[in-house]
Amino acid sequence: MNRIKLGILQTNHDKSVEVGDAFPDDAHRFRDLFDQQQQRFTYRVYMTIGGELPADIHEQDAYLITGSPLSVLDKHVFTDGLMDFIVRCDASKKPLVGACFGHQAIALALGGEVKKSEDGYNVGIEKTSFKNTKTWMTPAHNSLPMYMFHEDYVSQLPPGCEHLGFSENCAIASFAKGQHIFTTQAHPEFSHEFMSCVLRFTESSIPTAQAQAAWDSMAGEQHGNVFGTWCTQFFQQAM
């Protein structure tokens, strides 16, 4: 089986003792997610948070943009370069997946809108329900419970994109464009241990009722591994 060359654009570098020093980084979490599958990958991590991006989009077969605690609405050292990279991937129909920050960045780069929630953070396990499906979304599920941790949200789809999924607190939780772009607002790469650590670390900045609701939700199951399978099938079909 040929390996898929996957470029992971890391937009987060957690330097905290409590979280960053206790767990592998975002790129490793996605590698762990994909390595559960039969399909093999060759990974190249780009430290996009520091301005590193592929010099040529054809360096890899496909790309994935990670999540980040940064706001996509703020100006960062890598913002212009990342937006340009997304536009070039779209123009070349290069397979591209975005999760959380990546989902929002793709929406902005392609002409959509992102806003900051007036209700604060959306945290915990939340079901993404799918109103539309694509051929790569097998095994079929009408909804997937996955970890969420975000304040910004996609408020308007970019032109030419298809709305796939929504959740209770996020109207545009997943979208696609053609056969080459696939996104989720969720964190399919999170584990229960990691999410618990992040929630403990940030709990003091979240209203008590929201924090308790997040803890309560985490007693339920989550299916980030299914979304990981969908991503692999997306890569295979798009290539």
SSE topology sketch:
Blueprint: E1 4-9, H1 26-34, E2 41-46, E3 62-65, H2 79-92, E4 96-99, H3 101-109, E5 113-116, E6 122-130, E7 143-150, E8 152-156, E9 162-167, E10 170-177, E11 181-184, H4 192-202, H5 208-217, H6 224-238
Parallel strand pairs: 1-2, 1-3, 3-4, 4-11
Antiparallel strand pairs: 5-8, 6-7, 6-9, 9-10, 10-11
Helix pairs in contact: 2-3
Estimate the mean pLDDT confidence. 93
Q: Distance between the terminal alpha carbons, to the nearest Å?
A: 14 Å
Apparent shape: globular
- Strand residues, percent: 25-35%
Unreliable stretches, pLDDT < 50, 5 or more residues?
A: none
**What strand order characterises the main sheet?**
2-1-3-4-11-10-9-6-7
How do the helices and strands follow one another from N- to C-terminus?
A: EHEEHEHEEEEEEEHHH
Count the E strands: 11
Report the CATH topology name. Rossmann fold
**Count of distinct structural domains:** 1
Number of helices: 6
Description:
A hairpin with a 2-residue loop joins β9 (about 160-165) and β10 (about 170-175). The chain has six helices and eleven strands. The two termini are about 15 Å apart. It has helices at about 25-35, 80-90, 100-110, 190-200, 210-215, 225-239, and strands spanning about 5-10, 40-45, 60-65, 95-100, 115, 120-130, 145-150, 150-155, 160-165, 170-175, 180-185. It is α/β, with parallel strands linked by helices and about 240 residues long. The longest helix has 15 residues, at about 225-239. The protein is globular and about 45 Å long. The protein has a nine-stranded mixed sheet with strand order 2-1-3-4-11-10-9-6-7, sandwiched between helices. Strands 5-8 form a two-stranded antiparallel sheet. Helices cover about 30% and strands about 25% of the residues.
